[in-house]
């Protein structure tokens, strides 16, 4: 009897483990409404550094807020990132993410909450998206943009939002709730260069749902969703880079390759709406990529 009970228990554990195994492809019967997963990271520090634009020149940049990798300064390269820790939930996401600091006067406005970076498909054929190559880095947005250029930019998503106010191309004078912004990156890579002189031309936005021939490799479209704990009178609130239209951000990929590949395959290629563990709450039968410690299930 004890052996029978033990066998039943083991079968139950096996079934539970099987439920966690990653499904490599989408089930044709599943309705696909999303193709994404999240990186959730807290603020690590602020500094007048930018290892992409001003490598090796500390203090040369406007002030940035850094999330993700904790080993980032003006001298940071890929090897430094691989040796760093991370404020992201997933230990294997050692990427660096940074953006101009929001200030009230000269005081930084920061949050203790997790900030969300979505990894999505930027093309119609979400099954074709490939993981970022190690060391890829780029800038999304333009700190010299006018309000009209910011409004017309392919990466903008409803401008600055607060409460029921949307499509603000500069920081509003008044916010009834916390200020936030979403902005999408280009998602087509030239397949050769990990960077370019202007830190943009090796990347491109899709055209009519597909990557252009000059940038044929579809990679994840990342969407920064940044919020700040500031509301009410917004007098004196501004970006360190200038007006609200100067919004931009930097990304330096240092994901552990197998983990990123599994997340892209399961969540983006698989047509799921995943959290940071690669789990879709609405399709639990599809399993997940990472365990309770946010480590890859192998």
From TrEMBL:
Domain DUF1996: start-end pairs: 50-255
Keywords: Signal
Signal sequence annotation: 1-28
Protein name, per record: DUF1996 domain-containing protein
Species the sequence originates in: Glycomyces endophyticus
């Amino acid at each position: 009897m004890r052996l029978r009970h033990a066998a039943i228990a083991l079968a139950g554990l096996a079934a539970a483990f099987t439920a966690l195994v990653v499904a490599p492809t989408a089930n044709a019967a599943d309705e696909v409404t999303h193709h994404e997963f999240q990186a959730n990271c807290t603020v690590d520090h602020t500094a007048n550094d930018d290892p992409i634009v001003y490598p090796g020149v500390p203090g040369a940049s406007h002030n940035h807020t850094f999330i993700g990798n904790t080993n980032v300064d003006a001298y940071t390269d890929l090897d430094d990132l691989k040796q760093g820790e991370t404020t992201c939930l997933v230990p294997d996401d050692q990427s660096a993410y940074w953006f101009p600091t929001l200030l009230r006067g000269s005081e930084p406005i920061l949050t203790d909450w997790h900030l969300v970076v979505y990894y999505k498909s930027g093309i119609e054929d979400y099954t074709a998206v490939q993981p970022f190559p190690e060391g890829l880095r780029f800038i999304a947005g333009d700190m010299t943009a006018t309000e009209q250029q910011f409004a017309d930019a392919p990466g903008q998503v409803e401008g600055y939002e607060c409460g029921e106010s949307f499509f603000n191309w500069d920081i509003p004078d008044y916010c009834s709730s916390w200020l936030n912004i979403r902005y999408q990156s280009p998602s087509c890579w030239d397949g050769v260069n990990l960077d370019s002189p202007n830190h943009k031309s090796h990347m491109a936005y899709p055209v009519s749902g597909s990557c252009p021939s000059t940038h044929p490799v579809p990679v994840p479209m990342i969407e920064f969703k940044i919020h700040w704990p500031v509301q009410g009178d917004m007098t004196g609130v501004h970006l360190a880079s200038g007006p609200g239209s100067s919004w931009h951000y930097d990304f330096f990929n240092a994901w552990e390759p197998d983990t990123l590949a599994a997340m892209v395959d399961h969540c983006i290629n698989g047509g799921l709406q995943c959290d940071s563990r690669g789990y879709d709450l609405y399709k639990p039968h599809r399993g997940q990529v990472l365990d309770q410690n946010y480590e890859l299930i192998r």
